[in-house]
Design goal:
This protein is α+β, with helices and mostly antiparallel strands. Helix content is about 25%, strand content about 35%. Strands 1, 2, 3, 4, 5, 6 and 7 form a seven-stranded antiparallel sheet that branches. The termini are far apart.
């Protein structure tokens, strides 16, 4: 079994929003290395081409060409848990700066920073 890393870009079948189909697209692994090793699953966010209609919460990958992507791309806040056996191939690892922006986007989308603050205040 391959050990996948947080920040790695993989090609895999990603489910559509309505779950009616899936197509193989690049996605970035967001689950921790420990999670990835202890389970047969990875938590990923899809990577799509940058378009005029890209959502304001999408994160533009500045170093897209260094990881084998063929066009300017964004990471979307559409998380999915996927079996590691569905990974078609590994493409590379996003830069530390790009990963930090993706993590911030996910945290903001899920309101995690405020939730942690509220939990600490209640403790």
């Amino acid at each position: 079994m391959t050990n996948y890393m947080r920040g790695e870009i993989v090609l895999l079948p990603f489910p559509s929003l309505d779950q009616s189909r899936s197509e193989s697209i690049p996605a970035v692994i967001l689950s921790t290395d420990t999670y990835n090793i202890s389970r047969n699953q990875i938590i990923v966010a899809p990577i799509i081409g940058l378009t005029d209609s890209s959502n304001s919460s999408d994160v533009i990958l500045h170093d897209w060409s260094q990881v084998g992507l063929h066009e300017p791309s964004v990471v979307c806040a559409q998380l999915a848990t996927i079996s590691q056996s569905l990974v078609v191939s590994a493409m590379g690892v996003i830069s530390g700066d790009d990963l930090a922006h993706v993590e911030s986007m996910i945290s903001n989308s899920l309101d995690l920073a405020d939730e942690i603050s509220r939990s600490n205040e209640q403790a």
